[in-house]
Specification:
With about 220 residues, this protein is mainly α. The protein has one domain (about 5-215): MetI-like fold. It has helices at about 5-40, 50-65, 65-75, 75-80, 90-110, 115-125, 130-140, 140-165, 170-180, 185-215. It starts with a helix and ends with a helix. The model has no long low-confidence stretch (mean pLDDT about 85). Pfam families: BPD_transp_1. It is found in: Cell membrane. One of its GO terms (cellular component) is plasma membrane. InterPro entries: AA_ABC_Transporter_Permease, MetI-like, MetI-like_sf. Keywords: Cell membrane, Membrane, Transmembrane, Transmembrane helix, Transport.
């Protein structure tokens, strides 16, 4: 094997950093977008067809672009934001652009699962739209939100591995540099095993947290 344990651990840490920061920023973008997609649609709290159509179209555009193409297409923006187009920090930028709209859709889906009766009851109590959103709508959908954010996190793990194809660092970069280009089968196997274990751990944790919230 051409790499040692420390290189594998460094690559794992880089992957976790990429996924962690991109998930944070993507959620900060996706959460308000997802909420707006729900409350501005026809017949909802803040019905606004224009805002809904604009947001819906923008999100659809970003979601239709494959990550590897998106990553290359926004290289100038990535350089403008972080000063470089390679490495872990540079990979976070396209990951956010990739995952933000995806998370918005997942959040929209979770919020739409809330029964209309919950909103009607809140309105009957005189709650404002803001109170309905943050005290009734989001809490009611929390269990589903956790599951959907788990799905988004797993998607980011896969995308972070693809980022290695263009120098994004992490396990993907390790697998391509040593496993593919230098024909080191053992590195490829170890990388795949680590990614499988990571995904399984994330999914199990998300399921457990969602179940715990549902029981409350």
């Amino acid at each position: 094997m051409l790499v040692d344990f420390s290189q594998i651990m460094d690559a794992l840490v880089e992957t976790l950093v990429m996924v962690g920061f991109s998930l944070l920023f993507s959620t900060l973008i996706g959460l308000p977008l997802g909420v707006l997609l729900v409350v501005t649609r026809k017949g909802h709290l803040l019905e606004n067809p224009l805002v809904f159509k604009v947001l819906n179209s923008i999100i659809n555009v970003f979601r239709s672009v494959p990550f590897i193409i998106l990553m290359v297409a926004i290289i100038p923006l990535t350089r403008l934001i972080v000063g470089t187009s390679i490495g872990t920090s540079a990979a976070v930028v396209p990951l956010v652009f990739y995952a933000g709209p995806y998370i918005a859709r997942l959040i929209e889906s979770s919020l739409l699962e809330v029964q209309p009766g919950v909103i009607e009851a809140a309105e009957a109590m005189g709650a404002t739209p803001g109170q309905i959103i943050f005290r009734f709508l989001v809490p009611e959908a929390l269990s589903s939100l956790v599951l959907n954010l788990t799905i988004a996190t797993i998607g980011l793990v896969g995308a972070s591995a693809m980022a290695g194809a263009v120098g994004g660092g992490g396990l993907g970069d390790l697998a391509i540099t040593y496993g593919y280009q230098r024909f080191d089968t053992m590195v490829m196997i170890i990388t795949v095993v680590i990614l499988v274990v990571l995904v399984q751990g994330l999914q199990s944790s998300g399921n457990l947290l969602s179940k715990t919230i549902r029981r409350r």
